[in-house]
Amino acid sequence: MKTLQEAQEWQKRAFDKRAKKGEFSEGDVKKILSRIKCTTDLKEAAKDVDFVFEAVTEDIEVKREIFAKLDEISPHIQSSPQTAQQSEAP
To answer: Domain coordinates of the chain in residue numbers?
Structure first.
């Protein structure tokens, strides 16, 4: 994803597609998307959380940098690195 806006658009397309399949109502999609908070500020993103699911570029140095920063922000945060490549929007 090149920008945060593109990521948000990808999320919306993915949920809209699932709604068209009958997995969610349009109202459900709106509620789900309203609960997803996107930011490029790691400190803001990690504030008051217990678990982080990371999905950044497949560059080990970038991943190390992010996890080091998370440890500085809050050492108690549990994390789950994402190592598989992301697919195109469903």
So the answer is: 1-38, 41-83
